[in-house]
Amino acid sequence: MQNLLHLFENNKKWAEDILREDPDFFQKLSKQQNPEYLWIGCSDSRVPANEIVGLLPGEIFVHRNIANVVVHTDLNCLSVIQYAVEVLKVKHIIVCGHYGCGGIKAALTNDDHGIIDNWLRHIKDVYRLYKNQIDAADDFVAKADLLCELNVVEQVLNVCQTTMVQNAWKRQQELAVHGWIYSIANGIIKDLNVKVTGQADEYGAPSFPTP
Question: In angstroms, rounded to a whole number, what is the distance separating the alpha carbons of residues 179 and 136?
């Protein structure tokens, strides 16, 4: 079995490169964590949050899962949001999906994928909400791309409706929730023009355009 020594060598080189640019970097980093951003993204290995937005360790707080889903019963995700909002006092929560997402593609089929099918039910619910719009797309790729975008919109709404975000807005905390999507094909992030900065009505349901 491979002992992964090359990863340790890569780590050593990476640390040396960082120190060459800033000799005090790790000393400063070890003393505090003060990011302004919470990134909620997909677990896909091709979408590394820090790298695609050009930020260093310590500058972005990250939560990732299959298809960047925010579920109100997912204590992992909710705990991350709570810590980011109430302790770190992040100013921006970014939900970033990506085109070519395997979870999105799987949700568009009726194939058996095992235990992940239970998680994909959340995406299938998004498909059900926009079924007519998605089914009108030209082909499977277009359908999947549209569902990728609409899934981000719905997850932004889910973030906005969490008690942590609602309470932050009630106490006038500076906090914005954004919806973005990333293209693996060209490395570019697209703003879906989904940005929410506070409560829109008495029910806490924000209003924003859909793509």
Answer: 23
Respond yes or no: is residue 46 known to be catalytic.
yes
Indicate if 96 belongs to the active site: no
Q: What region does 171 belong to: left with phi over 0, alpha with psi -120 to 50, or beta? A: alpha
Q: What is the per-residue pLDDT for 57?
A: 86
CA distances 185 to 53, 100, 108, Å, are 16, 9, 21
- Out of 101, 122, 148, 178, which one is annotated catalytic? 101
Q: Quote the pLDDT of residue 209.
A: 44
Per-chain mean pLDDT for the chain: 92
Query: Pick the catalytic residue: 98, 122, 145, 178?
Result: 98
Beta strand 37-42 with 60-65 is: parallel
Could you tell me which of 148, 161, 144 has the C-alpha nearest to residue 196? 161
Rounded Cα distance, 211 and 202, in Å? 25
Tell me whether residue 101 is one of the annotated catalytic residues: yes
171 in active site: no
Q: Per-10-residue mean pLDDT for the chain, 211 residues long?
A: 88 94 90 91 95 92 97 97 97 98 95 93 96 95 97 96 95 96 97 86 46 42
Active-site residue, selected from the candidate residues 44, 145, 148, 178: 44
